[in-house]
Design goal:
Cytochrome Bc1 Complex, Chain C; mainly alpha
Amino acid sequence: RYMHANGASMFLIVVHLHLFRSLYYASYSSPREFVRCLGVVIFLLMIVTAFIGYVPPWCQMSFWGATVITSLASAIPIVGDTIVTWLWGGFSVDNATLNRFFSLHYLLPFLLVGASLLHLAALHQYGSNNPLGVHSEMDKIASYPYFFVKDLVGWVAFAIFSSIFVFFAPSVLGHPDNYLPANPMPTPPHIVPEWYFLPIYAILRSIPDKSGGVAAIAPVFLSLLALPFFKSMYVRSSSFRPIHQGIFWLLLADCLLLGWIGCQPVMAP
């Protein structure tokens, strides 16, 4: 259980590093638009898979997290309430919801694998970007042993990093309330999602209106999808674009700040 829970966090750490690296080096620009779009689809699938997987342990925080997040579908005009009832399998989060989410959590990783293979196939068409952002056929080196050894060192280092959490601090990335069985009667004083949802959760709860919160989240993913279709730049890497580099670090600081805000209790301004 600890390997599964912390493994999800490690997976999301790697994906966030991959995402921010692509923003820094602008590897999403032409001709890799399709690679980027598939990457955003994979990211969305991962978010859905992680949320659905948060529910089956049937603990207090996961129960109330499922209640809050699935209720967001009611913001959809006309059919919203019907969708929520369909997701719940009734009129509240119960055993039917648990069965649905368990089945989906088993299914979605297969979709993730398929989308990842498409992502690799699309990347293979034009090859990877490089830190300089300059396309060159002259300076290529063999994948084995150079990149193989580099990646192997990275794998071993990250395995040590993740094992520290699994063996010495298995609960540090979770929430204490998830050691309590799910109980629909008492509401937790502070509903907190997993750490990788905190920036989005901060945006969602900052707007009192449910529809407004959902509408505020949409541009986060739409902007990631739209980036490759802006004007293609001749110099990609932020190493040679100081203004772009400054904006990148501001974006990273903003995401960290939103994450901190998301884990704080709600208070009146």
